[in-house]
């Protein structure tokens, strides 16, 4: 059932010299499966001490006392860092220097803002001594009543949502839209608190050398980490050397340096020795971000022909009591379906949690499951097949802006996905299908979408007299495959074979590659690499075409093309010159050039840029017991140029599994009185196990996009979640006839929802 | 670090002597205990490691036809023992539905019996819990309690016993062999775990120093092998505790249920033997009406301890399902998804 991508690399003459598009396996794969990939916490510089954070067990209040003496008496404990005993910071950790400077708890006072907040750091010769020292602190608190959940207090309209998006967007006349509707649905959906739960916890090994700082820490944005840490400690960012070759997942939680990581740096400064600080799993439920819960009301109108007349998407969300991040859930309705009137709006409530943060597909994931459920409900109200309904309301231009799409192969995604899945055989009504064992079978679908973003990144290209090349960029491999995909782009950018290029990455000493987030890393850094390669090839061409001894003498820059280590005269390919020969004749060991990748503002103002997809899911539901099993998923995605189909398939699988997890599994349970999270571990915070993951099929639909960037890349990191969560939810409805609007879908909703009615 | 003594006794008597002291506890594979120690929930001053004790890792058929399973037999080894799985298929199915493959490879039979509740408030040191701190109160009672007990709970404790393994065992009248300071004794498994009442901190009938050395399944328990099932509803397919589970064994003769065994998991502080339901079934025809009546009888005394009324309804449906599947006959081999309602789905 699952289609196979053959892993053989085409011979060079068949791939026309291109490494892009080849399904190369991970260059770091062997290191990882043999345990040789060195993650941050694997480092042990000489003289290193261990730091363990003591965390608050109350969600709101003040620390009245800590038994520092008891901790210090414990054998092996070197020092205890508290609000009264810590290195001086150059900057208030609560200052908001820029919108990305989230407030963090660095022991600046005795205030407790959320459960699991750091209230002290114990530094010791061993991890065990530091752990026990932290336990011996026996904190006493002045406790205030915790504010928990979406109804914890008065709501307000946030100033912005997501990254600077307006909280309210109105397109067309919403009242007129509903007035024109002959059918209307009004449904409220709830999504829970979710945590990133990267496999690798946040960890740091910090070494000070005078006013220089060396840190091993997982980072999705090393340059931003340098800036933040530099500001806090009053040293130039360039004095900070971040080493982050591998991340065991980030999902947004490692985009910005977190409070605990900075505490590790403070601890090293306090004791004047190298310090390692690794968060325990339970300590990740607080200071490193989460996805805020949402309550989304969707009102949708449609006319007699099944055409949408209005979409009104309102989301209530939470943020922390002390900082602002607003999950832009309603924004999911901006781009997907054509409607003469669309309104999106948000309201927020402050609660006693850590500040929510970007978590894989922020806004799109939460908004998509609500929107795709609501669209399904409207299709039913109109008596139209859910796919036909989506096609009927296909957005030819971006609905809220009227801009044309830079490219949009969503129709092909619908068609190919539906064909592979067998959607045409789907009965319209629910509860029509059973398997041979009597289980209810349901089919559901959802549309996937994610913006094609770009940030800014740089790369440096080198060509050497030995004929090889080097590409350097401080990019971030979170496990998505950047070491491989960016190396493929590097090879093509330099006109060399993959094996001839040394790709260097993963440290802040290399050119700033921006942030690995927003599904934009490959596009951004890929463009930087492309430009750096073009620049160094131009230099090489200059050397060749001005050298009388070269067959290319006099050809001019525009007149040559680089391929497989040689420059060819464009109008006469019998005349060519090898890189090594050019450099040797010029007496140069190497030449280099830099390149930058960034979005083109002109193209952005002219076009709406998004990746799209269609996901189809089959579930089986026990007709009495309500247990759900996803048995099949097919996703067809159009995401511009595919650099490495093997890695892209894995990214999309991962996203689709995440979407299934969103619909059926993930939820952080918070005690409504204490504000403590009760399932802050991977045993009780459920994500799917392998046995939950069905046979999956990913189709990538060809899409040539000349506008997004020079390479035509849109990004695949997050889109797989969107569409998938809704597809599973819709399949559960189709199997059972029960529309569950609170996620994850729980057994009791089906058991008490009369699943066993026939 | 928090120091504790680690003792590796050479014999059972040495173990008992070492573990009789205040603050001492036995360590087998530690799949539960070590988590509790890391979380500061359990802070023993002495660990008595029994994993090297000789002779406790055998599975043997005794002269009276009963099967004696040493306390150190690993869960996975037991489940895959062909004779055991043939004689007590529901027990094997329950074992394989529990935890994860890695945990089953490590966890011992004795340790499984002695695992603690998974109540989140028990694991949260900052919460009030009468099990951890008698008289402190029970934060679960009015807390987040959708998965808590519906049978046999008290105002002092609404926790459930998490074991899958113990559910069919208690249905089959398994017996626990205990060595203690006053010698050897036996206890029906049903009497090992206690309901909370006013003393939720007393979780089992064991005294200080008591060591479970073996588990015995009586010969007559094999009489249910032809019609035995374990069904477990859970929130993911593996590595999840039961929301509710049921184990059943039937002796069907001449179209009638001669004898029935039924126990429920995930509903009470102990594996819950449903004797009233067994009586309803004895002599009845194996049909849906009898199963439904048995289910009603099994849950007649149930009441929600919180946001968990659905478990009463769900438990009845699981009883009906387990009985129907058992009546249809034990499958030739344990399904790829043991205990799952989807175990019959091809390719799943």
Task: Kindly list the characteristics that best describe this protein.
heterodimer, A: 758 residues, alpha+beta, Aldehyde Oxidoreductase, domain 4, seven-stranded mixed sheet, five-stranded mixed sheet, 16 helices, 29 strands, 24% strand, globular, B: 348 residues, Uridine Diphospho-n-acetylenolpyruvylglucosamine Reductase, domain 2, Enolase-like, domain 1, four-stranded antiparallel sheet, 28% helix, 19% strand
Describe the overall structure.
The complex is a heterodimer of chains A (758) and B (348). Chain A is α+β, with helices and mostly antiparallel strands and 758 residues long. Chain A has a domain at 457-598: Aldehyde oxidase/xanthine dehydrogenase, molybdopterin binding domain (Aldehyde Oxidoreductase, domain 4, 2-Layer Sandwich). Chain A has 16 helices and 29 strands. In chain A, the strands form seven sheets. Chain A has a seven-stranded mixed sheet, sandwiched between helices. Chain A has a five-stranded mixed sheet with strand order 9-17-16-15-10. Chain A has a five-stranded mixed sheet with strand order 18-19-27-28-29, sandwiched between helices. In chain A, strand 21, helix 10 (482-494) and strand 22 (501-504) form a beta-alpha-beta unit. In chain A, helix 7 runs parallel beside helix 15 (724-736), helix 10 (482-494) runs parallel beside helix 11 and helix 14 packs across helix 15. The longest helix of chain A is centred in the last third of the chain and has 25 residues, at 521-545. The radius of gyration of chain A is 27 Å and the shape is globular. Residues 1-7 of chain A have low confidence and may be disordered. Chain B is an alpha+beta fold. Among the domains of chain B are: 5-52, Uridine Diphospho-n-acetylenolpyruvylglucosamine Reductase, domain 2 (2-Layer Sandwich); 223-328, CO dehydrogenase flavoprotein, C-terminal domain (Enolase-like, domain 1). Chain B contains 13 helices and twelve strands. Chain B has a five-stranded antiparallel sheet. A four-stranded antiparallel sheet of chain B has the order 9-10-11-12. In chain B, strand 10 (244-253) and strand 11 form a beta hairpin. In chain B, helix 11 (275-281) runs antiparallel to helix 12 and helix 12 (288-298) packs antiparallel against helix 13. The interface between A and B is large, with 45 and 41 residues.
């Amino acid at each position: 059932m699952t289609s196979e991508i053959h892993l053989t690399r085409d011979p060079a003459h068949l791939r026309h010299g291109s490494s892009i598009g080849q399904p190369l396996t991970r260059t770091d794969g062997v290191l990882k499966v043999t345990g040789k990939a060195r993650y941050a916490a694997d480092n042990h510089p000489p003289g290193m001490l261990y730091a363990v954070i003591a965390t608050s067990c109350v969600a709101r209040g003040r620390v009245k006392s800590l038994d520092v003496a008891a901790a210090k008496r414990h054998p092996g404990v070197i020092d205890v860092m508290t609000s009264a005993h810590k290195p001086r910071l150059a900057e208030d950790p609560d200052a908001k220097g820029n919108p990305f400077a989230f407030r963090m708890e660095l022991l600046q006072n005795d205030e407790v803002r959320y459960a699991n907040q750091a209230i002290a750091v114990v530094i010791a010769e061993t991890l065990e001594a530091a752990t026990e020292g932290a336990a011996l602190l026996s904190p006493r608190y002045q406790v205030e009543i915790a504010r928990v959940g979406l109804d914890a207090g008065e709501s307000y309209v946030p100033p912005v949502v997501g990254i600077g998006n307006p909280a309210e967007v109105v397109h067309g006349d919403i009242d007129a839209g509903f007035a024109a509707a002959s059918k209307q649905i009004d449904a409220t959906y709830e999504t829970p608190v979710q945590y990133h739960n990267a496999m690798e916890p946040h960890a740091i090994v910090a070494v000070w050398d005078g006013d220089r700082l060396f840190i091993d820490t997982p980072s999705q944005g090393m340059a931003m980490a340098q800036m933040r840490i530099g500001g806090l400690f009053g040293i130039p960012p360039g004095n900070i050397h971040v080493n982050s070759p591998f991340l065991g997942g980030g999902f947004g939680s490692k985009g910005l340096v977190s409070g605990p990581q900075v505490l590790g740096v403070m601890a090293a400064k306090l004791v004047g020795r190298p310090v390692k600080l690794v968060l325990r799993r339970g300590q990740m439920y607080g200071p490193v971000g989460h996805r805020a819960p949402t309550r989304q009301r969707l009102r949708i109108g449609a006319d007699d022909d099944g055409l949408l007349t209005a979409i009104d998407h309102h989301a209530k969300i939470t943020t922390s009591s002390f900082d602002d991040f607003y999950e832009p859930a309603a924004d999911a309705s901006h781009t997907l379906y054509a409607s003469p009137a669309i309104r999106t709006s948000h309201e927020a409530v402050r609660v006693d949690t850590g500040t929510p943060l970007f978590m894989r597909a922020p806004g799109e994931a939460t908004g998509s499951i609500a929107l795709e459920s609501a669209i399904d409900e409207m299709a039913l109200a109109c008596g139209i097949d859910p796919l036909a309904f989506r096609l009927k309301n296909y957005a030819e231009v971006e609905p809220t802006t009227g801009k044309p799409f830079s490219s949009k192969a969503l129709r092909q995604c619908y068609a190919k996905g539906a064909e592979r899945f067998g959607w045409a055989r789907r009965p319209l009504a629910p509860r029509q299908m059973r398997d041979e064992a009597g289980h209810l079978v349901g089919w559901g679908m959802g549309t996937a979408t994610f913006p094609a973003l770009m940030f800014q990144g740089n790369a440096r290209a080198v060509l050497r007299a030995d004929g090889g090349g080097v590409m350097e960029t401080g990019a971030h491999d979170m496990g998505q495959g950047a070491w491989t995909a960016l190396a493929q782009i590097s090879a093509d950018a330099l006109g060399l074979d993959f094996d001839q290029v040394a790709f260097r990455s993963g440290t802040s000493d290399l050119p700033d590659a921006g942030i690995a987030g927003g599904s934009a890393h490959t596009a951004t850094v890929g463009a930087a690499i492309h430009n750096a390669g073009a620049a160094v090839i131009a230099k090489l061409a200059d050397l060749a075409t001005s050298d009388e001894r070269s067959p290319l003498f006099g050809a001019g820059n525009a007149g040559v093309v680089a391929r497989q280590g040689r420059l060819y005269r464009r109008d006469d390919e019998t005349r060519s010159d090898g890189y090594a020969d050019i450099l040797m004749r010029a007496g140069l060991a190497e030449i280099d050039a830099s390149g930058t990748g960034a979005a083109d503002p002109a193209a952005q103002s002219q076009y709406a840029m998004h990746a799209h997809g269609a996901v189809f899911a089959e579930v089986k539901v026990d007709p009495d017991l309500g247990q759900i099993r996803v048995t099949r998923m097919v996703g067809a995605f159009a995401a511009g140029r595919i650099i490495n189909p093997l890695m892209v398939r894995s990214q999309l699988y991962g996203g689709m599994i995440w979407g299934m997890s969103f619909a059926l599994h993930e939820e952080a349970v918070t005690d409504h009185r204490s504000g403590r999270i009760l399932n802050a571990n991977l045993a009780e915070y459920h994500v799917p196990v392998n046995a939950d993951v069905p046979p999956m099929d990913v189709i990538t639909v060809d899409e040539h996009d000349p506008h997004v960037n020079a390479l035509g890349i849109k990004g695949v990191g997050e889109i797989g979640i969107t569409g998938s969560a809704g597809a599973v939810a819709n399949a559960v409805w189709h199997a059972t006839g029960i529309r569950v609007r609170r996620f994850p879908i729980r057994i009791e909703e089906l058991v008490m929802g009369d699943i066993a009615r026939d | 670090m928090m120091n504790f003594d680690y003792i590796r006794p050479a014999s059972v008597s040495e173990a008992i002597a070492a573990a009789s002291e205040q603050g001492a506890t036995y360590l087998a594979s530690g799949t539960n205990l070590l988590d509790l120690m890391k979380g500061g929930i359990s802070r023993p001053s002495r660990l008595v490691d029994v994993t090297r004790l000789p002779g406790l890792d055998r599975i043997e058929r005794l002269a009276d036809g009963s099967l004696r399973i040493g306390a150190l037999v690993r869960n996975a080894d037991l489940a895959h023992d062909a004779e055991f799985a043939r004689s007590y298929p529901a027990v094997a199915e329950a074992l394989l539905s529990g935890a994860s493959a890695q945990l089953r490879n490590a966890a011992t039979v004795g340790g499984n019996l002695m695992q603690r509740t998974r109540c989140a408030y028990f694991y949260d040191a900052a919460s009030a819990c009468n099990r951890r701190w008698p008289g402190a109160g029970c934060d679960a009672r009015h807390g987040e309690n959708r998965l808590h007990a519906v049978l046999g709970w008290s105002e002092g404790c609404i926790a459930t016993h998490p074991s899958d393994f113990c559910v069919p065992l208690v249905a089959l009248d398994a017996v626990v062999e205990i060595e203690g300071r006053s010698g050897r004794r036996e206890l029906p498994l049903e009497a090992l775990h206690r309901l909370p009442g006013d003393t939720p901190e007393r979780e089992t009938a064991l005294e200080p120093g008591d060591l479970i050395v073996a588990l015995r399944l009586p010969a007559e328990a094999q009489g249910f092998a032809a019609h035995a099932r374990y069904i477990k509803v859970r929130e993911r397919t593996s590595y999840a505790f039961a929301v509710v589970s049921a184990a059943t064994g039937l002796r069907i003769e001449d179209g009638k249920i001669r004898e029935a065994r039924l126990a429920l998991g995930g509903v009470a502080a102990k594996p819950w033997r449903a004797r009233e339901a067994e009586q309803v079934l004895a002599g009845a025809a194996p049909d849906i009406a009898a199963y439904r009546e048995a289910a009603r009888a099994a849950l007649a005394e149930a009441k929600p301890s919180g946001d968990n009324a659905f478990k009463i309804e769900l438990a009845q449906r699981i009883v009906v399902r387990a009985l129907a599947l058992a009546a249809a006959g034990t499958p030739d081999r344990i399904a790829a998804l043991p205990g799952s309602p989807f175990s019959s789905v091809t390719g799943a």
